[in-house]
Amino acid sequence: xxxxxxxxxxxxxxxxxxxxxxxxxxxxxxxxxxxxxxxxxxxxxxxxxxxxxxxxxxxxxxxxxxxxxxxxxxxxxxxxxxxxxxxxxxxxxxxxxxxxxxxxxxxxxxxxxxxxxxxxxxxxxxxxxxxxxxxxxxxxxxxxxxxxxxxxxxxxxxxxxxxxxxxx
Length: 168
Prior knowledge:
This protein is mainly α. It has two domains: about 5-60; about 70-160, Serum amyloid A protein (Topoisomerase I, Chain A, domain 4). It is about 65% helix and about 10% strand. The protein contains five helices and three strands, in the order βββααααα. The protein has helices at about 35-70, 70-90, 95-110, 115-130, 135-150; strands at about 5-10, 15-20, 25-30. Strands 1-2-3 form a three-stranded antiparallel sheet. A hairpin with a 4-residue loop joins β1 and β2. α3 packs antiparallel against α4 (about 115-130). It is rod-shaped, with a radius of gyration of 37 Å. It starts with 6 loop residues before the first strand and ends in a 17-residue tail after the last helix.
């Protein structure tokens, strides 16, 4: 190999550059273009891995973000259940309770998983309280059927009594 200006051959892949900094001899290694290309490929590979990891994290965070909506949905679903209960009391309609059970559960379930959870918890608690007040097991089973009907997306009007004002 020929010596280039200021460079001495060391091997086929490296050149040594000699410099003096404040009287101290320093060796600089200048890598050949093939090694520089390998470094660029490795840097690009690391960049691609980092980019891929970022994309995966975005997808994970996006799917987990749905979980953050759960408490909001639960509160809104509880509000839907409360409105149905208030309408039941206001209407004072005989045989209208199944409709209001189905409607409250239906509206809460439309909020999402949090609303379904709230409707289920509130319905179960309400039925337990009604069971302690002397409500018969047949009526409790019918109420729970109306609750499940509404939570599963069934039309609450299936339980709507004849003559119930359109307001409800």
